Amino acid sequence: xxxxxxxxxxxxxxxxxxxxxxxxxxxxVMALLGxxxxxxxxxxxxxxxxxxxxxxxxxxxxxxxxFHSPGQAREAGVGYVxxxxxxxxHLSAAENVFLxxxxxxxYRSPRRIAKRAxxxxxxxxxxHIDALAPAGDLSVxxxxxxEIARLLSRSARIAILDEPTAALADAEIxxxxxxxxxxxxxxxAVIYVTHRLREVFRLCDRVTVLRSARSFxxxxxxxxxxxxxxxxxxxxxxxxxxxxxxxxxxxxxxVLRQAQGPGLRAPVSLAVRRGEIVGLAGQVGxxxxxxxxxxxxxxxxxxxxxxxGGEALAPGSLRDAIARGVCFCSDDRxxxxxxxxxxxxxxLSAPSLSRVSRFGLIDGERERGFAEPLARRxxxxxxxxxxxxxxxxxxxxxxxxxxxxxxVDPRVLLVEEPTRGVDVxxxxxxxxxxxxxxxxxxxxxxxSSDTQEVIGLADRFATFYQGRMVRMWNAADATxxxxxxxxxxxxxxxxxxxx
Amino acid sequence: MSTVSQGARPALLHGKLxxxxxxxxxxxxxxxxxxxTTPAFLTLDNLFVVVRxxxxxxxxxxxxxxxxxxxxxFALSAGQLSALLGIVYALLVRAxxxxxxxxxxxLVAAAGAGAAQGYAMTIVRNPIxxxxxxxxxFAGIAALISGNGNIRLHNEIATWIGTxxxxxxxxxxxxxxxxxxxxxFIVAKTRVxxxxxxxxxxxxxxxxxxxxxxxxxxxALAMLGVSCAIVAIFSVSQFSQAKADMFSGLDIDCIASxxxxxxxxxxxRGSPVQAALGAALIALLQNFLLxxxxxxxxxxxxxxxxxxxxxxxxxxxxxxxR
Lengths: 499, 322
What we know:
The complex is a heterodimer. By secondary structure, chain A is an alpha/beta fold. Helices cover 34% and strands 24% of the residues of chain A. By secondary structure, chain B is an all-alpha fold. Chain B has helices spanning 2-12, 15-37, 44-69, 78-94, 99-124, 127-146, 156-163, 171-189, 191-201, 203-208, 213-239, 250-260, 272-291, 296-321; strands at residues 151-152, 241-242. The A-B interface holds A 10-13, 54, 318-319, 322-323, 328, 330, 335-342, 346, 350-351, 353-354, 357, 360-362, 390, 404 and B 6-7, 10-11, 14-15, 189-195, 197-198, 201-202, 204-212, 264, 268-269, 322.
């Protein structure tokens, strides 16, 4: 159905795509894989009419096409769900299905729109939601499904999903996968961009790998295993994703006693010791993130107590927490982790301005001397320090977002979703750096909805479900199945234990 | 042939160089055309006239650029604050405080009034509304203490301050150039300047990094206040009079200068020097139109068109840069 060949695109001197081919047949799911910066997004944006290629040809049903705007691509039957969702929160779910669709009529009675949207929503497994309720009330996963319903309503024949599950917890990923199967059943050609290899094996028929701006010939997913796929993406063997566990664990450093805060339905008690990495596992809204936000000063302690090194800790703001050496890296680096338009150096030195200035002036030499070791340590090329942070790949942006905290000599590092939207190679490096910090005496507490990450990275972890801590695990004793039970349905887990 | 042009075009329109190039090309083209059609235009004397003409708007535009870079768009109280400060200065001099002391007091009051707006802005979260409200307050106080009349000055030192011509160039021109250079240094090289750009680039990330975003806004508005004070002091000293409506329309002229200079509206990028150059370019154009003896309506329309063209030009370049 679709045939893209020898697509090339450069931005000034930077080559985003050198030569990429991509072919998909109707009723087929083609995975598009590659490290960050390999050119995946550029390739799909060209197909969606958001970028124009410098060279190459696009054929749809044998007809050569050239898109100068997203509208032209849409008319040719190409539907695109971007990584950043385009849901209008104050409009109803039904309105969002027909967003920008003139055929839905100029006069839009809410009831009529809802009625017309219903079958599309139902097909996406959204039969439980009220089509007239504002889309802002939907979960991230449900919004994703509304976007896919939009493709269905426009009868798109080629559907591009750009990392549809990057921000989703495991339970919601299944729903998106089912939605994709619905598209396929209707004869759609689906291009599925992702970092999650498990989805590739569960969902996709064929896979096209992009590496250093070039594509490799597509292969059947069935003919590959995980290691082979990773090797194809990285061009080298990735022996071990996760570093060794803690060598020496010291005394209690950060202690929560019956701590209660917003987003928690029951008080939490937790001790974090020097030298260890503690995971907080749970789906979105489970309370795992609420615990981090309590410690870092974003939420206030309602009852109970927290201590750091034996002294009471009750930060009223992020700033208070930072002053105590408690540093927090959120799960949304673009929003509040990096300064996209400023040099990497400036992102790295932002929390440490007093260290790089003298008499109120920024000391350029001191700042370079400060940023270079941080960059080296995190595997960022020091030659890139003068680049804009936003021009780095997702993985390197994450390294900068984390690296800036290492510069302040933290006592505890709190991280939400340490590797969201980060490619496999950078992921291993980030895990290694977090372990190195722990070994240097700075314990790391992270919240994650990725069970493999929790088991692989943490020494110990707590599971969370619906605002309550379920139990504490030693990572060495845990299995992915047990965690999944804890974070999706702990009652069943308790029964299994009793039996 | 076609492949060459395809490859060369994006490279040329790319990045910092392109922005500078755009600026230089626009200015050079304008100058060449103007000089060719109007011989009186490209003379050294006229250049000094232009710098002097740009200086009042320019100094305040430099102050305004601090606000824009700090991520707070614009302050719409600059005109009223300047007038108020001019009246305060005139009253102090008339009360016998002595011109130097009156200058000092006016500058301090200006910084205070600016910082107050900055902190209020952080609470209200809307710079436009906050400064419109403050502007109304300033205008009210100015009308009140001036008794809605003209305050005349008869003070030799004040007159000397307002009319001195070091190296035969008006002091206002010197101050304009010096303030541009000092401000460029402050924004690019000082710690508080870094606080300003980081807060403007990404307010949430600045907060998450423990930076005082409220102080960035207060500092930016204080610098705008100081700019207003500079302009007020030199204008009042030069003309030996102050009144409440003496700087009407200044806000809009300053915003036009900041936009024509290409300071990014979203904050975090750009330099006060760009605002100064923007003011100079507008003054240049106005000077040329004046030499061509065009009616004022036509002059306004043409300057407005320049603002639209320059702003959209920079916007397109910035989009390309991403």
